[in-house]
Amino acid sequence: MYEEINSFLLRLDLTAQTANKYIIITIDVLFVQINSGTFLIVVDIYRMADADNRVILNVGGIRHETYKATLKKIPATRLSRLTEALSNYDAVLNEFYFDRHPGVFAQILNYYRTGKLHYPTDVCGPLFETELEYWGLDSNQVEPCCWMTYTTHRDTQDVLVGLDRLDLDAEPITEEEIPRKFGWDYDPTIRHKNMSLQEYMKTLPWFKRIQPRIWQLFEEPYSSSAAKAIQVVSIFFILVSIVSFCLKTHPTMRVPTIELIKNNFTNITPTYTLHKERTDPHEAFQYIEIVCNVWFTFEIITRFIVSPKKLAFLRSPVNIIDFLATLSFYLDILFNKILPKSFTNTELFEFLSITRIFRLFKLTRHYGGLKILIHTFTASMRELILLIFFLVLFIVIFASLIYYAERLQNNPDNDFTSIPIGLWWSIVTMTTVGYGDMVPKTYIGMMVGGLCALTGVLTIALPVPVIVANFAMYYSHTQARSKLPKKRRRVMAVEPVRPARGPGGGGGPPGGGGGGGGAMNKFGMDTGKPGGSISMQGAPPSSGGPRKNLIKQGGGGMAAKFGMSENNAVHNRIGKVIV
């Protein structure tokens, strides 16, 4: 233990001039000799100006100093309710400590000073929102100059939510996600803590055990080699079905149906005439369609049975198209092959078979780029509706103008006999197609036609960059997501250790002297006095300790010289050990 040998006090009074104002600074230096050669020097600095109105905030290791009145400008916030009774107040350093982002706090403190909240461009938007929520501030108070930059992260979050619904991840589903995907009552944390997933699956019925495996074969092509093979087979049958549907309409691929008609002449020998009633596709196309639709039927039934969410499966647009295309095939067989021809309309059912061409949308299940393209048009629906609105508006206007413009002059070859006919010309002209079947022949009509073409180019060109930008944004986010790791390191939420507030600690007990005692104990000194005070020569005894009395005598005397009360003296303690 240390033993005090000698101590003495040295006081220095300094006068400093800053900003045309004199500040009186009193420095007390206490020398304490310990163990023949070790000196403990405690320096107390008193700033007699407006230090009582200032507060020090330590945010993430960066110290900020401001006036207490500044923090009162925005009431009902964390900074406006600062008191020394808080657990994050350090009485030794006379500061409040917050383990928060220091860069964001600089803008927050500037908001208290100027009343204008600006967004720092070097931090992410959600981080800025989290910090504002912690300090009790409203994020809607961001200045207009920073609002567009600040709200960009919200659009990005909406994009990521939309991409999550598209299910573009190429990574297969993990074993931990299977129980949640299929709604199993498996709780590895509490109820099934000592049971693995494989052991839990053995307790399930046989169908539930094989359901995830079959589902992965048809829905997760990257889960195994068998799933990739099924994906290749599915794409093969889709392409064969589409090619067959197109080729069977070619004249060289169709077989005519010949009908023999007897001529009613008076001659003894009858004569006949061959009449081509219709043409039917070659018989080979029928067998191709049967094979393809057998696979499609098997695929859609199997996917529906093993689907974890039956209602969501039925609502999927791709599944609806697949079901209608398969149903049209069976209806075609029913009405054309089984029922008599007098009860059927061949042309009508051939038209309904057009739904089979929409099987091309099934490729979106196997290629994420098509999903992004469809999602781009869905997300750009507002721009597309605006484009259609202006197109319809200008089409009607120029159809009316061209109708009356062609009637102003003598025009015997006038093609615009009515406004509805002019609508077709306006559509063809504004879309810059220009079939040439209808053209204006008067000078005024030609001027109207030129204005119509220019208006169409401008109207169509304006929303196109927005749609292209949306596609580029979705595609770039998809590429970035594909490079992210599937599993992230989890950060544990640990409660920070709070400093103890007891006798002789940093908080300081009633009666004074607590802060000094805590500081002396840091150097391994046993004061042996209540409140952590040390004995000094020539110091009168007091409940607050001799050090406090010396400070009060010096500080009060200096304050009285300038007409100030003793309570205006604010202490900033600095301790240093010299060996």
How would you sum up this structure, described in words?
This protein is an alpha+beta fold. 46% of the residues lie in helices and 15% in strands. The protein has 20 helices and ten strands. The protein has helices spanning 68-71, 102-114, 125-135, 144-150, 152-166, 178-181, 197-202, 206-219, 225-247, 283-306, 310-315, 317-338, 346-352, 368-379, 381-405, 419-430, 443-461, 464-483, 514-522, 546-561, and strands at 4-18, 21-34, 38-47, 54-59, 62-67, 89-90, 95-98, 254-263, 271-281, 570-578. A four-stranded antiparallel β-sheet has the order 1-2-3-10, covered by helices on one side. It has a four-stranded mixed β-sheet with strand order 5-4-7-6. Strands 8-9 form a two-stranded antiparallel sheet. The longest helix is centred in the last third of the chain and has 25 residues, at 381-405. The protein is flat and about 135 Å long. The chain starts with a strand and ends with a strand. Residues 1-5, 18-24 and 502-579 have low confidence and may be disordered.
Topology:
Blueprint lengths: L3 E15 L2 E14 L3 E10 L6 E6 L2 E6 H4 L17 E2 L4 E4 L3 H13 L10 H11 L8 H7 L1 H15 L11 H4 L15 H6 L3 H14 L5 H23 L6 E10 L7 E11 L1 H24 L3 H6 L1 H22 L7 H7 L15 H12 L1 H25 L13 H12 L12 H19 L2 H20 L30 H9 L23 H16 L8 E9 L1
Parallel strand pairs: 4-7
Antiparallel strand pairs: 1-2, 2-3, 3-10, 4-5, 6-7, 8-9
**Shape verdict:** flat
Radius of gyration: 43 Å
Mean pLDDT across every amino acid position: 74
Q: Cα distance, first to last residue?
A: 16 Å
Describe the strand arrangement of the main beta sheet, using strand numbers.
1-2-3-10
Approximately what portion of the residues adopt beta-strand conformation?
15-25%
Question: H/E element string?
Answer: EEEEEHEEHHHHHHHHEEHHHHHHHHHHHE
* Helical run tally: 20
Structural class: alpha+beta
What level of helicity do the residues show?
40-55%
Q: Please tally the β strands and state the result.
A: 10
Main sheet attributes: strand count, strand direction, barrel closure: 4 strands, antiparallel
- Low-pLDDT runs: 1-5, 18-24, 502-579
